[in-house]
Amino acid sequence: MTGTAMDQATRPEAAIGKQARRSAEMRRRLCQAALDALCEVGYDSLTTPMIAARAGVSRGAQTHHFATKADMLVGVLEYLVQIWDEARLAAFGGKDLSDVPFDVYLRFAWREIFGKPSYIAALELMLAARVDKALGERLRQVLDSIVGDRNLRWRQLLRFPDVRREEQFQYMTLCLLRGMAIHASFNRGDDVNEAVLEAWIEIADKLIAMERPGAGAKSSRRARKPVPR
Amino acid sequence: MTGTAMDQATRPEAAIGKQARRSAEMRRRLCQAALDALCEVGYDSLTTPMIAARAGVSRGAQTHHFATKADMLVGVLEYLVQIWDEARLAAFGGKDLSDVPFDVYLRFAWREIFGKPSYIAALELMLAARVDKALGERLRQVLDSIVGDRNLRWRQLLRFPDVRREEQFQYMTLCLLRGMAIHASFNRGDDVNEAVLEAWIEIADKLIAMERPGAGAKSSRRARKPVPR
DNA sequence: AATAAAAAACAGACTGACCTGTTTTTATTT
DNA sequence: AAATAAAAACAGGTCAGTCTGTTTTTTATT
């Protein structure tokens, strides 16, 4: 019906016109409401009327912007990705991550992304994608669109000579963070996650030191210039 | 109404009577059907009529054994835990795990438990528990009932002098496996999990060697008697 | 042991509520 | 005036829980 969700949702809201701005604002409100609802009631109980009500708009307005529920869900994930981006920019700016110690970045990732309730929403979407193949394809597309940038950031962060091992390390950390998110959700009131995070940092520091070319034991915590050149 | 689910589901089906056996069989069929359905259509689309239909029983029979949907879900998790137990027994018997190398156990855990589609079902239940507090309490109770045995097994497996660090290591591995399960579900057709598993084994071996008292580099892969005594 | 009473297992239908997607109407912008 | 945005009502379908009735098994009684 309308253009794809991404076209409008991610388009920088420049001076395109009044209705475009109104439209973008409405989409944002709906996505925010949907995300809140998803966090609060869970994927299973999430309904389109409820999203509209929370956004304070009619169902008609909603269906105009998001024709189907799947469209709405894709919109939510795009919105989330946007939030993550903004959080990263707020923490590190657009700067090269070569100067950021691994533990600093990891703590940021847990605190601002994986440890937040909204990440559970993302997980629920991913699990829902398992059975709804069409939705899954669209969600994967959203996440794939940032995988390139993410790899680049990790490249700056770790700078393993062996890129294959670097990727392994990256995915391992990702799996760990996701697992921690689940643990935090299910066994709440449990401080084991903090300990696990610290333990992984400890291990990671050693691993990074081992993988890097001129390795000293604590090389990862004090970063130096990106490339000696 | 009837006794708790566990009483009947886990009670050894000895000569208690014809009715008890029939009941246990029916519960088993329903739980198996519910698990299958959960794996196939996902938590969101799981319905009670659909479970009954798959089990080939009437809805009346179903509601007799599981009055509410939540009862049914608790039953599924109990059933799953039972399956995991059986898989472990089939692989290692009831024997002490002190002789089992870590990598063997970890590979088993991935192959027979976390890497299976049914583990996603368990994850979906855990995520559903986030919003349904009452269900969550019951599910946690089911899983808590095995946490003692699990800790014992890991104690045999790892034998860290520092139990605190051992627990850390255990939870770290658990988080990793859960994260891998999600990755396998969402990004299927991806062999990165195997690599991550191997990488973790490699790291773990070193960690185990470091934590153990008389440590040689490869001490973890060739296990020796539980306690020198 | 035989029979009557009670309890448990099973079957099928019903209901009130709610959800998704669609269609029809009204308002706002260009 | 034309097109887009928003509102409101509608239609078809489904689900969870409940209820009534039937069959099978167990227990109590004589």
UniProtKB/TrEMBL annotation, chains A, B:
Residues in the DNA-binding region annotation: 47-66
TM region positions: none
Region (Disordered): 1-21
Keyword Transcription regulation: yes
Record keyword Cytoplasm present: no
One Pfam family matching this protein: TetR_N
Highest taxon listed in the record's lineage: Bacteria
Record PROSITE patterns: HTH_TETR_2
Keywords from the UniProt entry: DNA-binding, Transcription, Transcription regulation
Sequence ranges assigned to domain HTH tetR-type in this UniProt record: 24-84
Protein name: TetR/AcrR family transcriptional regulator
